[in-house]
Amino acid sequence: MKKFAGKVAVVTGSSGIGLGAALHFAREGAKVFICGIDEDINKKAIKAGAGMNIKVSKVDVSDPAQVEAWIGSIALEDTGIDILVNAAAIQTYGDTETTDINHWNRVISTNLNSCFLTSHFAYPLMKARGGGSIVHVSSVQGHSNQHNVLAYATSKGAIHALVRAQAVDAAKDNIRVNSISPGSIRTPLLEYAAQVVVGEGNPIEDTIAEFGKCHPIGRVGTIEETSALIDFLCSETSGFCSGSDFKIDGALLAYIGV
User: CA 111 to CA 117: how far, in whole Å?
Assistant: First the structure.
């Protein structure tokens, strides 16, 4: 029997880590609802999930009304939600002086507020199932930072506090809440970061290889590896895990580069 047979999984972010998790859940028997804001990326997700029990919707996860409507549409199809994974994220660059206020608000709304919004509207449906698992995708930049990533790092660090607070409150309803903090994972967001480094139109493979060399393991991680960790946190195997952040960073944060 497949691990998530009969389960309902809700995932934000229709590319990268989010899509990887959604496909993994579907292969393991879950009914999966995934959302993204970009129609072209959503079309690619639909193609990737062809033949599987995956429904892709266009949703701006920073918009409370859209999130409520999306979760409401799921409630019309299913009486409960077992798994919620928040992987939708954007990244902008800037420090305290140079970060545009509109960019700040957009990053915080997309990366952080969305974790609350989906949890808020999905919570009754998780209670109806008798419990479940929530996983928010944070980042190593929630622990330690590069230069010039003020908004992104703030959003990811705040997720760790959100996880602790949610886990304490949700325990009474048998809902577990955790986060993962990836290092460099080969995703469209990492490729975007590499493109920023080398300049538009230039090859990025050497830059991504250099990113990998910063990790003691010597390479960037894969979406399959993050999916395996998310699988663990959403399965009964991790039944005593809640309120924690799980690093998947190739020993990056364990390393002192001096």
Answer: 11
Closest among 155, 228, 147 to 193, alpha carbons compared: 147
Overall number of domains in the chain = 1
Type of residue at 182: P
Active site residue 152: yes
Residue 201 predicted with pLDDT over 80 = no
> Catalytic: which of 123, 152, 192, 255?
152
Cβ(135)–Cβ(84) below 8 Å = yes
Question: In this predicted model, what pLDDT tens digit does every residue of 26-61 receive, in sequence order?
Answer: 999 999 999 999 999 999 999 999 999 999 999 999
Any domain includes 153? yes
Q: Is 204 domain-assigned?
A: no
Domain for residue 207, yes or no? Answer: no
Q: Which domain holds residue 33?
A: 8-183+221-248
